[in-house]
Design goal:
15 strands; five-stranded mixed beta sheet; elongated; alpha/beta
């Protein structure tokens, strides 16, 4: 081989090595290493959704299906389910906190959609539900069609309101929406008559119906809501590890046991 050719081959080898090195970094192979170095997993969860993510005022502890899944992920990483820190999130704040690195993953009744897949990575589905309406018993409202010209309370940052407006248009009616930061605020607005219905996923509404016996959960569902654990784009190793945990929990029957533990009957994973 001529001297010029040897230099050319050496140069190509260096470029290939640099390319592979850059690929490892860009692929997010270090997300789990960073979590291990920190010593605990940071997870965004709901604090006001019974059965999924709820901060028990009596114990001060978070509890629910998504809390148990987060603990399972921590156990997979550290061999210790207690190595996890929970941060309350809302539909409005969850993606921003993930992007900024304040949390490593979101386990907070986060519906998987094609649009959201462009922003975050999702685990396999661990629970499926649908949008329903909670109304006052004496309102006479029996379905979305009875909401013509009335106002529905929805969570700020969620797409619930737009989905219901689209459904209302199909029914030939018009509905208004009012956004609130938390679910308890929507329930208060419903009880005060500022809105005529509270809308979110049925499993969530059941927890609020239980808090006020003067309300009733209407049976119709107006969407399909598959929940997934969200991780930051590029953190491929963490995404894959979370997927392994969800799949293992499905196959072992552990996920079904957790549905029963938390009284969740809205729908299983698919």
């Amino acid at each position: 081989m001529k001297r010029g050719s040897r230099w050319l081959m050496a140069g190509i080898g260096v470029l290939l090595a640099l390319s592979l090195t850059a690929g490892c970094g860009g692929g997010g192979g270090g997300a789990i290493a960073k979590i291990k170095e920190r010593g605990y997993l940071k997870v965004g969860v709901k604090a006001d959704v019974l059965g999924f993510g709820y901060k028990n005022p009596d114990t001060g502890q978070f509890e629910g299906l998504e809390i148990d899944i987060a603990k399972a992920v921590a156990k997979k990483i550290f061999g210790d389910e207690s190595k996890v820190e929970f941060t309350p999130v809302t539909a409005k704040t969850r993606t921003g906190l993930l992007d900024s690195g304040d949390i490593d993953m979101v386990a907070a009744t986060f519906t998987i959609t094609e649009e959201r897949k462009k922003i975050v990575d999702f685990s396999p589905v661990y629970y499926s539900d649908g949008i329903q309406l909670l109304v006052m018993k004496d309102s006479g409202i029996q379905s979305l069609k009875d909401m013509d010209g009335k106002t529905i309370g929805v969570s700020k940052g969620a797409d619930t309101g737009q989905r219901l407006k689209d459904k209302a248009q199909e029914l030939g009616i018009t509905v208004n929406t009012a956004e609130y930061e938390t679910y308890p605020e929507i329930l208060t607005a419903l009880e005060a008559g500022r809105v005529q219905a509270m809308a979110t996923d049925g499993s969530i509404l059941k927890t609020y119906q239980a808090q006020d016996p003067n309300t009733v959960l209407l049976p119709d569902k107006y969407s399909e809501e598959p929940y997934g654990i969200a991780t930051k784009k590029g953190n491929d190793d963490l995404r894959d590890l979370v997927a392994d945990v969800i799949n293992e929990m499905k196959q072992s029957g552990e996920l079904q046991k957790l549905y029963e533990k938390w009284g969740l009957t809205g729908g299983g994973s698919s």
